[in-house]
Amino acid sequence: MIAIALGTLSGTAGRLLFLRVDYRAYPSYPHAYTAHLAFGFLASLVGAVAPVALAAEQYDAVTFLLLVATQFREIREMERNKLSNLETIELVPRGANYIEGIAEVFELRNYLIMLVGAGVAGVTLLWETVPGAVSGVALLLLASWIRSDLRLSNIADIQPAPINFKGVELFVGDVHIMNIALRESREKIEKYGVGLTLTARDDEFLGVLDNMGQRQAVVHDLIHVLGNREDVDSPELKPQVRKDLSTQKVGVYFCPVDPDMDRVLVIASNVPVISNARRGSGEGL
Amino acid sequence: MSKVKLEKNAVFLVTADPTKVVGGGVPVIIVHNEEEMESVAGRLSRIMDAVAHDLGTGVYLVVQH
């Protein structure tokens, strides 16, 4: 009994810990937490019951694990549907890759929680309460280490770059972005535009910066936090990401409401590397 | 589906020099001078939620992105 209680408690505590609302403000409503906390509680409960059931030689308890795994897949479905439905009204959408990444993380966290619950219950069963509680802390630390992702600053060197025009052509640093005919638009862009260049730290990360989903995630996060000057009738202010073919440097152009470069750099550095944008390094060929 | 790739749609050509264009699939607006070209292309791009691009030959192309 203590094993189940301790396992469930540490699992649920873990779910609460992972459910931190960060600068991306997602999930953004108490209702969303409720759903995830409830799922986290059930996941850790089932995880915690598993070793106890096995110790009692109740092997059919395994079927419950399978049942719960199906529910986790539904969490992924739920997050994916919700975010995809919101995409159509976003001026700067997250992009399908980013959404898939978020949905995947929500599913995987529940597996982590279930394993924490099972681990703590197992340890408690074998060596009593105190080692059980210690293992809870240790497993949660391990789980948060597994959880930590690559960030954009891990794979690319992010530098501020000046917005400039050569005639009617807009450049960020020396990366060409687009052609802007109207003087009025050029003046607006010079006033509001902010530029960054991203240089891959290694050749194996070039593919990540080429991935349209990754690029969309970068501009989405920047605009999501710093605000967007763009409106539906001013598409020239829409964020753009382009690459210089000779240097492979990627230029990011956007028009935030808050152009504070320190914040821009912090946000850009923390953009997650989308898991399905990663490519193999070609090692072992 | 989210639009990650840009879909482009040319909606108008604006020029002060009618010899540079012929009638085609895109409406062509002839104006008197560069100043008028700037103002007409500007209004068009606001009306159509589009961006005006300079083709470098005295012709502006208004494109919906």
Description:
The complex is a heterodimer of chains A (285) and B (65). Chain A is an alpha+beta fold and 285 residues long. Chain A folds into two domains: 2-148, no CATH class; 153-277. Chain A has ten helices and seven strands. Chain A has a four-stranded antiparallel sheet with strand order 1-5-7-6. In chain A, helix 2 packs antiparallel against helix 3 (62-87) and helix 2 runs parallel beside helix 4. The longest helix of chain A has 32 residues, at 96-127. The mean pLDDT of chain B is 81. Helix content of chain B is 22%, strand content 31%. A four-stranded mixed sheet of chain B has the order 2-1-4-3, covered by helices on one side. Chain B contains one helix and four strands; from the N terminus they run E-E-H-E-E. Chain A binds chain B through residues 84, 87-88, 93-96, 99, 167-168, 178-185, 212-213, 216, 232-236, 238, and chain B through 1-5, 38, 41-42, 45-47, 49-54, 56, 60-61, 64-65.
Give the gist of this structure.
The complex is a heterodimer of chains A (285) and B (65). Chain A has 285 residues and is of the alpha+beta class.
Largest sheet of chain A: 4 strands, antiparallel
Measured between the Cα atoms of the first and last residue of chain B, the distance is 16 Å
The structure class of chain A reads alpha+beta
Mean pLDDT of chain B: 81
Order of helices and strands of chain A: HHHHHHEEEEHEHHEEH
Distance between the termini of chain A: 53 Å
Per-chain topology:
The complex is a heterodimer of chains A (285) and B (65).
Chain A: H1 2-18, H2 30-55, H3 62-87, H4 96-127, H5 129-147, H6 152-155, E1 156-161, E2 163-166, E3 169-172, E4 175-179, H7 183-192, E5 194-200, H8 206-210, H9 212-226, E6 240-243, E7 250-254, H10 261-270
Antiparallel strand pairs in A: 1-5, 2-3, 3-4, 5-7, 6-7
Chain B: E1 9-15, E2 28-30, H1 34-47, E3 51-54, E4 59-64
Notable traits:
heterodimer; A: 285 residues; alpha+beta; 2 domains; four-stranded antiparallel β-sheet; 10 helices; 7 strands; B: 65 residues; four-stranded mixed β-sheet; 4 strands
